[in-house]
Design goal:
- The chain is an alpha/beta fold and 328 residues long.
- The chain has 2 domains: 166 residues, Bordetella uptake gene, domain 1 (D-Maltodextrin-Binding Protein, domain 2, 3-Layer(aba) Sandwich); 116 residues, 3-Layer(aba) Sandwich (D-Maltodextrin-Binding Protein, domain 2), CATH 3.40.190.
- Helix content is 45%, strand content 19%.
- It is built from 12 helices and 10 strands.
- Strands 1, 2, 3, 4, 5, 6, 7, 8, 9 and 10 form a 10-stranded mixed β-sheet that branches.
- The radius of gyration is 23 Å and the shape is globular.
- It starts with a helix and ends in a 5-residue tail after the last helix.
Length: 328
Amino acid sequence: MRTVIANARTSIALLLWLCGAVHAAGGPYPLRPIRIVVTNTAGSGADVMTRIVADRLTQALGQQIVIDNRAGASGNIGAEIVAHAAPDGYTLLMITSQQANAAALVENRRKSLGYDLAADFAPISLIASTPLILVVNAALPVNNMRELIAYAKGKPGSINYGTPGTGTASHLATELFRSMSGIEIVHVPYKGTPQALTDTMAGQLQLAVLVATAVIPSLKGGKIRALGVTSATRTQVAPDLPAIAETVPGYEWTGWYGLAAPAGTPRDIIARLNAEQLRLLKDTAFRERIGELGADPLGSTAAEYAEHIRRQIETMRRAVKVSGLRVE
């Protein structure tokens, strides 16, 4: 009898331990919908990319992926929200080169931004890279980069260019172009890419350097004219467009996208999300869909993504120094 009781107690203890272990691990991930915070407005390149990824991850993970657009402060509002979210895998951030730009613009990141890009996130994997495309309103009497630079030098300060905000990839890329080409153009910051693109098409702005994923679908309308890509060489995204570097030697700027979670998120959750993302990036239909948007599919380990972020911050710092840009 005592043996039976002892065995029963052992079984109960083992059962309780297993329940505790499952509870500590949070159960099989994911158990509920996952939120991906996008630091840009709906319709922006980052938003479009995230929605495509979310749709496929919803199928792979068996849980709804909810998109939460938190635009503002050059992407810092959304990034800070995720940096301080519970590290449980249910709040993720679509990091873009925009966050590396913000980190490059300040010395004390945590004090100025409310988070530290290199320390407060657990990178999952890179998703894609994309050049920006320099476009002008169709009414501007220029047809290539040389004509644009000559026109701008002949009429300094007459060209207004729009961006999704101060310190964004669009802003720094355009300022770097302005500095390296020796022209004077006027910055007009907006709250998002769609607004800047719309006003360029309407003629309220004369120029914009915006992410390819947002620009390419609008080129067919004939209201804007694409003159060049910001990648170092011509890209498969827009093979007929010359690289700006062909006219301005040494110029280069490339945007990118990648998912991350708050620092401290369990490694098994990061590994699961990384595996699903890499599996997704091998899918031909998905790769073709990304290509249609003007992006090149990537993929990486979490460690490679972390190193990429570190290198990008240093690259952006050099660009800030060259352009002479200061936070407005």
